[in-house]
Amino acid sequence: MTSQDSDNESIMRRDLQSRRILVAVTGGIAAYKTVDLVRRLLKRGASVRVMMTDSATRFVHPTTFAAISGQRVSTSMWSDSGEPRVDHLELPHWAELIVVAPSTANMLAKLRHGIADDLVSTALLAATCPILVAPAMNPTMWDNIVTRENMQALLQRGIKCNGPNSGEMAAPGEKSGEGRMSEPDEIEAWIVDHFHNSKPLAGKVVLITAGRTEEPIDKVRVLTNRSSGRMGAAIAEEALHLGAEVIFVHGGMDVEPPLGACQYYAPTTLQMLDVVQQHAGNADVAFYVAAVSDWRPAQTFDGKFKRTEQDGDTFSIELVENPDIAATTAKSVKGLAIGFALEVSDALDYAREKLQRKNLDAILFNRETNIGAHEGALTWVTADESIELGSGGKRELAERVLRQVLERMKLD
Ligand SMILES: Cc1cc2nc3c(=O)[nH]c(=O)nc-3n(C[C@H](O)[C@H](O)[C@H](O)COP(=O)(O)O)c2cc1C
Hints:
Layout: H1 3-13, E1 20-25, H2 31-43, E2 47-52, H3 56-59, H4 62-69, H5 87-94, E3 97-103, H6 105-113, H7 119-126, E4 131-135, H8 139-143, H9 145-156, E5 160-161, E6 165-167, E7 177-180, H10 184-197, E8 205-210, E9 215-216, E10 222-223, H11 230-241, E11 245-250, E12 262-265, H12 269-279, E13 285-288, E14 295-297, E15 319-321, H13 325-329, E16 336-342, H14 347-357, E17 362-366, E18 375-381, E19 386-393, H15 394-409
Parallel strand pairs: 1-2, 1-3, 3-4, 4-5, 8-11, 8-13, 11-12, 13-16, 16-17
Antiparallel strand pairs: 6-7, 9-10, 14-15, 17-18, 18-19
Helix pairs in contact: 2-4, 2-10, 5-7, 6-9, 11-15
The structure holds flavin mononucleotide (FMN).
């Protein structure tokens, strides 16, 4: 496997990060396949809750789902202790997607007619999010005109369906035909597609540099700055939220890099440049958010430089100029290249000059007080316009920044 393959795999693996998926298991033999489906969704980073019908618990014990999901499995509207429980409302309202797998003929009929006589059917009636059913049943049950009409009516109401497949049935001796539940990897692919395609940045690669570079003076000291990495992390979170594949190249940060992004720790300017060069050609958008040191010590001392080694009362460090990451790589970015400029005076003129000099499509003019702070204020500057994005929390600002980007990409 090449390093590119392993990068792609790590992007792929977490692509359902924090997606809230409610899996409803109903009473068919194919329920055993749903164990694998839940495991696959969890591996992709999804938050998965499971609810089961009474019949389903006869095929797979709830403990199996509880153990792999690490969550309580809901099997009834009623609690043994008599305490009121509202799983039938809480679970569907929590979910972004409900997957009924396997879906019995009985559950399709109940869903069609709005029957709410157990936890699963009541939760389905209370759902406002999309519902996917994966029917599984004996071919004669699937071929029955009643089941066909139920399915047709559900499709017309916007319920999604995956499968069933043709082939061998789970029980020995059962006649083969159409009615076999889709394989877990097919349902998984449907779910991934569903989340990606409903997002404006689906299939787009967003490259982000963030945080502060740290240029070593000796083995323990570094030349750095006060950037916290919050703005870059907020842009990454927003881009992930919009469905992008995010490549997050960072130095020192006061916050955790966002989960779900493909992360590179590149603390020096030269290391950061190297990673950006590898990915720029593939990036639909590149955000140069990192506060990169303009200089680095000409030499790095071995070990810790001691007072006794200094010349009299002073210690001088010779600095050499670092390459400018944005200016060096913006031209090779496949799509939009967006820089950040932090200036104190003559801001707009300076931002425009920087825009041209570095071949950027836009610059976000950043106030000095933004550095290291939780809140900030930004201005979006292009060759022909300057738009105040206002002030606010960094996630809020990131949302406004991405809105400008979507407009430019004509993706909103
Ligand atoms: C061994 C066995 C296997 C079954 N397999 C299926 C099946 O694959 N599909 C189906 O629709 N019903 C199947 N049934 C029938 C359902 O379990 C039955 O209709 C039940 O009422 C469904 O309840 P539920 O929809 O609340 O889970 C099976 C029943 C048994 C005993």
